[in-house]
Amino acid sequence: MLISMKEMLAPTREHRYAIGAFNVADSCFIRAVVEEAEATHTPAIISIHPSELEFVTDEFFGYVRERTLKSKVPFTIHLDHGASIAQVLRAIQCGFTSVMIDGSLLPYEENVALTKEVVKLAHAVGVSVEGELGTIGDTGTSVEGGVSKVIYTEPAQAEDFVQRTGVDTLAVAIGTAHGIYPKDMKPELQMHILRDIAQRTTIPLVLHGGSANPDAEIAEAVTLGVGKINISSDMKFAYFAKLREILARETWWDPNVIYPDAIAAAKEVIRYKMNLFGGLGKASLYR
């Protein structure tokens, strides 16, 4: 079942759970996300960064759409951190059911104008839109990047942004960062900001940089209105750690022998996150 992000996140606030948006980079990660979602009857978001889309190419999503359309579990295919209208249009043409337009580094009024234009284009063809206010930190361990100093989302501005743009969901900055935190870097999530934003808005909120944050804070964020949490680094770290372990001791070269254990390692992380977010087994809400 392939649905829009608006449909996917509609029940999350009422039922107090969030859905994992897992960044995929090839068919192995697609298998990890889709198979684990089906095994646990859990809705999931397949998230693609523009650099990942460039790597896998447009044609890859013919396979992804067919695989998810035939599933009994709900999936959304989402463009993560789209930086331009051209990138958004490309994703829509590839069959994505949700797009993000990230104007967070633009002056506020320019962010509003760009997001509003994308909303108009995407909604015309039934595609959901995620906007962003504030900035996500950079741990230096992810190709997604970020900024050295987080600009927290201003709650009153978030309320204005949602009303003026018509976005379906909003990514907020409360102190998370892309990547795995180095040992000397500890996240400082500002839950009071999230609480204020949630009280001023009714749409589901999004946390980017969901990897490596304290479980207790992530679980609390879900109770405060976060309906989508992005996971990339935690899943990929487990996958590639297992690959390095295998390749260090074996001389195999066949993908069907090398990759299964790495996919299994990624699945363990995916299931853990689904359970942490409270979404495990929630596919029944969409029938």
TrEMBL record:
<feature type="active site" description="Proton donor">
    <location>
        <position position="80"/>
    </location>
</feature>
<dbReference type="InterPro" id="IPR000771">
    <property type="entry name" value="FBA_II"/>
</dbReference>
<dbReference type="GO" id="GO:0005975">
    <property type="term" value="P:carbohydrate metabolic process"/>
</dbReference>
<dbReference type="InterPro" id="IPR013785">
    <property type="entry name" value="Aldolase_TIM"/>
</dbReference>
<protein>
    <submittedName>
        <fullName>Ketose-bisphosphate aldolase</fullName>
    </submittedName>
</protein>
<feature type="binding site">
    <location>
        <position position="132"/>
    </location>
    <ligand>
        <name>Zn(2+) 2</name>
    </ligand>
</feature>
<dbReference type="GO" id="GO:0008270">
    <property type="term" value="F:zinc ion binding"/>
</dbReference>
<dbReference type="GO" id="GO:0016832">
    <property type="term" value="F:aldehyde-lyase activity"/>
</dbReference>
<keyword id="KW-0479">Metal-binding</keyword>
<dbReference type="Pfam" id="PF01116">
    <property type="entry name" value="F_bP_aldolase"/>
</dbReference>
<feature type="binding site">
    <location>
        <position position="102"/>
    </location>
    <ligand>
        <name>Zn(2+) 2</name>
    </ligand>
</feature>
<feature type="binding site">
    <location>
        <position position="208"/>
    </location>
    <ligand>
        <name>Zn(2+) 1</name>
    </ligand>
</feature>
<feature type="binding site">
    <location>
        <position position="178"/>
    </location>
    <ligand>
        <name>Zn(2+) 1</name>
    </ligand>
</feature>
<keyword id="KW-0862">Zinc</keyword>
<dbReference type="InterPro" id="IPR050246">
    <property type="entry name" value="Class_II_FBP_aldolase"/>
</dbReference>
<feature type="binding site">
    <location>
        <position position="81"/>
    </location>
    <ligand>
        <name>Zn(2+) 1</name>
    </ligand>
</feature>
